[in-house]
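To whoever is on call:

I kicked off a structure prediction for a single chain this morning and the downstream step that reads the tokens threw a length-mismatch warning. I double-checked the sequence; it's 184 residues and nothing unusual in it as far as I can see. Pasting both halves so you can look.
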Amino acid sequence: MSLELKRGFQALANAVADTSFLIDWIRYSKSKLIFKIFDVIYIPESVLAEIRSERSLLWIAEGLEKGGLAVFPELPDISREALNLVSKSRRLPVRPVDYPEAFCLVVGKRLDLVVLTENGGAIALKSYDPEYSSVIVWRGIDVLYALWRAGYVNSFKDELELYQQETKHIYSGRDLAKYGDYLK
């Protein structure tokens, strides 16, 4: 298990989720299991504004009602830092980060929350911006691994196959290599 996963697995209380993560995760038939790992998952207002599907909105409404989800307000100082991150990422020859994902990264950094994303720009930012290198960023595969490690699913490999089938999100060989020993 990577150091980041160990750190994240030990400190799972709260997270902040972006649109890319939510859209995929909500398609997963066992999506409610995520509330076994996180006490509260914050959804920034900018992320909530991007959600359009009825299924996603119903899942979010239920999560808000039960207290597993909470809306994170657009705070001016976090918004400014997120906008600066977007601008900085667009000046570099790397995959840029968009505003909602940048907002999640800033919130994750400032409040020590796990950032849930499938956005390549947000994931890449950790590798080139030392200010954000310590932010814990998880993708769906990482959440599935944590669910398995915590005993909420029986087989990481089977659960990952189900997740990929249901969400149509297929992880690359490089993504899977990180968990190679656990997928045999």
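Update from on-call: the warning came from a stale cache, not from the record. Cleared it. Sanity check on the structure: The radius of gyration is 16 Å.
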